[in-house]
Amino acid sequence: MTILADRRSGEVTFIFKGSPDANRVYLAGDFNSWDPGKQRMAKYRDGSFRTRVALDPGAYQYKFVADGRWVDDADAPERVANPFGTANGVVRIV
To answer: Domains plus CATH for the chain?
Structure first.
């Protein structure tokens, strides 16, 4: 996964490459109340999924939901343990 952040606008592009055979991937995090169906990611020809989110300065936790399965972001710039025994990615906007 790659995160592209535009520091001027606060927009962050999340790119998920963990499952190119997935049909649907969503982004869930504390910025959207962890709703696993709220932020659908668009599938690109290279098999990646992408979405853009405008975030205010701060730290935000997130995960991907690929075909209903919650997926850790092993390439996140920062990760924290969650109560489910897995990890959440963290993105920081300054």
So the answer is: 2-93 (2.60.40.10)
